Amino acid sequence: MLSVVIPCYNEVETIEAVIQAVKATPIPSLEIIIVDDYSTDGTRQLLQDHLAKTVDQVIYHEKNQGKGAALRTGFAVARGDIVIVQDADLEYDPQEYPTMIEPILNNKADVVFGSRFQGGRPHRVVYYWHRVGNGFLTTLSNIFTNINLTDMETCYKAFRREIIQGINICENRFGFEPEITAKVAKLNCRIYEVGISYYGRTYKEGKKIGWRDGFRAIYCILRYNLFA
């Protein structure tokens, strides 16, 4: 079974479509876990009134904590053999789950990163400086982990359940990405990368990550590679 963990914060416009997209994936056995991180735009009410009954589990945080905290909550209750992260927007396509989990199913990988910068799949053209920042953070992470990722900051990451449940996740926000990268590298996990599509959003459309998160990522790369 594949467990899909969906951290959700203020995604009233997309959460229903994301659930439908996940349920339409060709994977035959799915567990869908949504963690609402104290949404204030009507998302929580929509989940409680209509959508909770369409998924396996919805967990409600009583205060906003961040993406990393929501993932920590979701990972802890996952029951599938493989666990994958799915953002609650429409930037990533669940139809690509088979591509993501194939190296694990073939017993070649323990962790799979979905790279937005590999392969010939569609990639929405959005912010130039985001791409520069992503490249810098990925390179800096690679220097310390000694693995050659092309997209450390990607949302799409799939794990063997015993791997992700055995890691103590400390970061509450977007620092989750460099933290988990450092920690799976230290475990000497078999890490694969596969090309995925990317339908990025603008800030007007609801994108949340900002420049402060970039500085936090630098701190996390140094902390979790050198001192943790």
Task: Provide a quick synopsis of the model.
It comes from Candidatus Synechococcus calcipolaris G9. 39% of the residues lie in helices and 16% in strands.
Principal-axes geometry comes out as globular
Q: Provide the spatial order of strands within the biggest beta sheet.
A: 3-2-1-4-6-5-7
Task: Return the string of H and E elements.
Answer: EHEHEHEHEHEHHEH
Query: How is the main sheet built?
Result: 7 strands, mixed
CATH architecture field:
Alpha-Beta Complex
How many beta-strand runs?
7
Uncertain stretches of 5 or more adjacent residues: none
Distance between the termini: 32 Å
- CATH level-1 class: Alpha Beta
Counting DSSP H or I runs of 4 or more residues, the number of helices is 8
Sheet-strand content, in percent, reads: 15-25%
- What is the CA-based Rg, rounded? 16 Å
Structural class: alpha/beta
Q: CATH superfamily name?
A: Spore Coat Polysaccharide Biosynthesis Protein SpsA, Chain A
CATH third-level topology: Spore Coat Polysaccharide Biosynthesis Protein SpsA, Chain A
Residue share in helices? 25-40%
- Taking all residues together, what is the mean pLDDT? 94
Give the domain tally: 1
InterPro entries: Glyco_trans_2-like (IPR001173), Glycosyltransferase_2 (IPR050256), Nucleotide-diphossugar_trans (IPR029044)
Domain Glycosyltransferase 2-like: 3-165
Organism: Candidatus Synechococcus calcipolaris G9
Pfam family, one: Glycos_transf_2
Characterization of the model:
With 228 residues, the chain is α/β, with parallel strands linked by helices. It has helices spanning 15-23, 43-51, 67-77, 97-105, 128-145, 161-165, 176-186, 211-227; strands spanning 2-8, 30-36, 57-60, 82-85, 111-115, 157-160, 191-195. A 7-stranded mixed sheet has the order 3-2-1-4-6-5-7, with helices on both faces. Strand 1 (2-8), helix 1 and strand 2 (30-36) form a beta-alpha-beta unit. The relative contact order is 0.17.
